[in-house]
Amino acid sequence: MHTAESGTPGRSGGDASGDGRRGGSDGGRWLDDGLPDPRLLRQELVIVLALSLGAAALRAVINFTDVVTRPGGLNDYAANLNSSRADRPWFDLAWQLVSIGVPLVPVLLVGYLLLRELPGGRGPGMPAIGFDLRRPGFDLGRGAVVAAGIGGSGLLLYLGAQAAGFNLTVVPESLPGEWWKFPVLIGSAIQNSVVEEVIVVGYLLRRLSQLGWAPLAALLFSSLLRATYHLYQGIGGFIGNFVMGVIFVLLYRRWGRVMPLVVAHALIDIVAFVGYAVLAGRVDWLPTP
Predict the structure, then answer these.
(1) Where in the chain are the domains?
(2) For residue 89, what is the enclosing H or E element?
(3) CA–CA distance, 157 with 233 (Å, rounded to integer)
(4) Could you tell me if 158 and 248 are in contact, meaning their C-beta atoms sit under 8 angstroms apart?
(5) Distance of CA 128 to the CA centre of its chain
(6) CA 281 to CA 276: how far, in whole Å?
(7) N or C, fewer C-beta in 10 Å, the chain?
């Protein structure tokens, strides 16, 4: 099955307008055959990652190093995911909405860059990686199946790693009991899924393929990046997300669409965030600080 990740931008061929020439009228740097300059693709990739998940990976490494060099085991410390940001509810809500919206800007940048794959904005855009609403039944059905499989096994891995001292105690939410609590948690889950799957699967694999990376090398890089920016959770979170990354890359290559992965990731996080809010302190098996 043809996948979006394996494709390359179409050839436009030189013409009188200069679209197919290096340094055409659109101001971009293009090779004579109409393909983007690999050097610029590498620079673009570094910039996108530095603005998004690459920066998150760096912060996670620093946080993990800080925790692991302190006295006690990893499970003596907590990783707080959705916490209060102000002591007044309306200001807290405003900060929550900003924290959901701002990380989505790199996703908009990715959509723009995919349109700019060809001069004059004639690139394929987000449909190139299957981030669209053309197949809702397919995306929802497969996403739900993936979420059920990975979510259940991921919970067991977390509980085992935390009990063994390889993971921090993950606190999915500690928001106040305001009316907006659950909408914010759902919005945060959807934002996580869109940012991660669009950038670390769809966009990253497409660019690495265009740069000539071998499929195995691209799979390992994508999965390692996902694992690294989850390192703040501990060793268990690193291993679990690496395995999840491998599975997601393989599924993306099979389906040629990132939307089922967005759905799966969103469902996993919604269950984790909302489930913790409902169950924390009410069941013995769920670790709390």
Answers:
(1) 36-279
(2) helix 89-101
(3) 12
(4) no
(5) 17
(6) 9
(7) N
Question: Could you tell me if 34 and 119 are in contact, meaning their C-beta atoms sit under 8 angstroms apart?
Answer: yes
Query: Count of CB atoms within 10 A of residue 232's CB?
Result: 23
Helix axes 38-50, 105-115, angle to 10 degrees: 170
Give the pTM: 0.86
As a whole number of angstroms, the distance between CA 77 and CA 70 comes to 10
**Token pair belonging to 195:** 């940012």
d(CA 244, CA 241): 5
Rounded CA separation 272/277 (Å): 9
In whole angstroms, what is the distance from residue 11 CA to residue 2 CA?
A: 18
* CA–CA separation, 171 and 286 (whole Å): 10
The per-residue pLDDT for range 122-158, each reduced to its tens digit, is 899 999 999 999 999 999 999 999 999 999 899 899 9
For residues 36 and 114, the answer to whether their CB atoms sit within 8 Å is no
Q: For 261-278, what is each residue's pLDDT tens digit?
A: 999 999 999 999 999 999
Q: Residues in the chain, how many?
A: 289
SS3 289: coil
Per-residue buried b or exposed e for 186-210, using 16+ beta carbons within 10 Å of the residue's own CB: bbbbbbbbbbbbbbbbbbbbbbbbb
Mention every residue, 6+ apart, whose C-beta is less than 8 A from residue 240. 154, 157, 158, 161, 230
Helix ranges (DSSP H) in 197-287: 204-210, 215-228, 235-255, 259-279
Residue 234, φ and ψ in degrees, nearest 5: 115, -175
Q: From CA 139, how far away is CA 41, in angstroms rounded?
A: 29
